[in-house]
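Pinned message: reference record for DNA polymerase kappa
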Amino acid sequence: MNSLEFKAGMEKVDIESINSMLKQFSVGTHFQEKLERDSKRTGEYIESILCKLNELPETEEYQEKVDSYLSELNSKIDQSRTFIHIDMDAFYANVEEMDNKELIGQPVAVGSVDMLVTSNYTARTFGVRSGLPGLLAMKLCPHLVILPSRMDRYREVSTIIRNILYKYDKNYVSPSLDEGCIDITEYLKNNENLTGVDVANQLQNDIFEETTLTCSMGISCSPLLSKICSEINKPNGYFYLERQHSQEFIKTIQIKKLPGIGKVRQELLKTLGLDLVSDIIDHRYELYFILPESHRDLLFKHALAIPIFPNKSSFRIHKKKTMISKEKNCKELYDEKDLDDLMKSLFDKAIEMLKSENKYATNLIVKVQDFSFKVTNYSYQLISSSTTTNTTTIITTTTTNSNNSSFSNDDDISTEEKECIIKEEEIDSYYLDSPLSSPSLSSSSSLSSSSSPSSSSISLSVQSPNKLKKTFVYPNNFDEHSEKIWNLFINTTENIAFEKIRCIGLKLLNLINIPLDLENFKK
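Predicted structure (tokens):
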């Protein structure tokens, strides 16, 4: 069973007692069965790694190779920059307090009786935190106020905060709604009278004045260290780490606090006797031998406090929306009509976002989770494309009936219907396995792109940066595109028993702009 871990605000909580209650609460549930399956897989993985350790080279040549590798990494350390990591305090719960002042001072959590996604600091004094079942939380704190999440509102407030970050660093990174990281190196050069601490204070004041929300910050020479430091003086505080103390500081941090170290590898390192980051260097010969290169590099860079700077693909200002994802828990539904209504609600929200972005989705994934927590993804192609070496940008039309000027998808373009099973590579991450053949779906639905004899298609070719041309076959209009998405969404669940659906969702992937030339052509 997953254990409840300490979170800021829980200093006086008896965590062992709560974990005992949590274990009893989960006995006999599907979730407990899932955890047992995960634990078995983790154990098998660790056993295979331990067997591999029997082949560990013990030669001086091998040890010199590892030491040389670490020396090379250490020689490239760059501590010349200054980063601030911003972590909003109990963000969702505090937004609810911001909008309803009567909640201030009360224990508040956001989520449902099934699971909480966050709690305020008052609730945490009772042991109520994110990841806790709401029913158990009510036992710990009978007067707890549990509110449903309002993601649109949280995004709205997050946008205000991100606009503030933009003033300090146009290339800020914001991996989630409640946190962000800014590089203030240039800002400090342009404001020589300010220090990193001054900027942090200034930033906290700016955010509070705009939103009345508090945040905690970490200031250091790397994004990782700044993130770790932001956890030290929560809530509404900051911690500044001087450059010369970076390596000594990181040695004292628990490995599980490092990003990119999944639960499976955490368990592996724990089995090997590793707890603190300092243990990584002490066990460098074993880790170099058993870990994949990418994980090995990340782990050793963290251990040496080598800053890993964000690349341009991480910059918020450069990010383009490439996916729209909506999903909902179905546990409180009573019949197929409720499921249809829920699916229509998810569909409407996704389509509204797609339309507001003036984009088409080229792929669709329908996600279905059953009560054993198995997730099945049904993947469909919405818009076909091909890549050629022709660099000319063209618009062409193919009309099957010259007496009709309407446009639709080409008869020869069919929708690929594939089913992808999502398996767990690690307990806390997923990957798509190879596609399998999809179940048969109604031929009367819009699962293929076949059209009537009086239809036609619009093909637009655009030149990509690598000089290759990608050709998309666009739908006539947005309504046609959305209808196709709905038909695929609803028909996917037709052959699945209602009582087996725990969670349903849809993802619109690989969003593409509707080219201006195409819009003008259609007009």
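Pinned by admin. Summary line: The chain has two domains: 1-318, 320-383+415-448+475-522.
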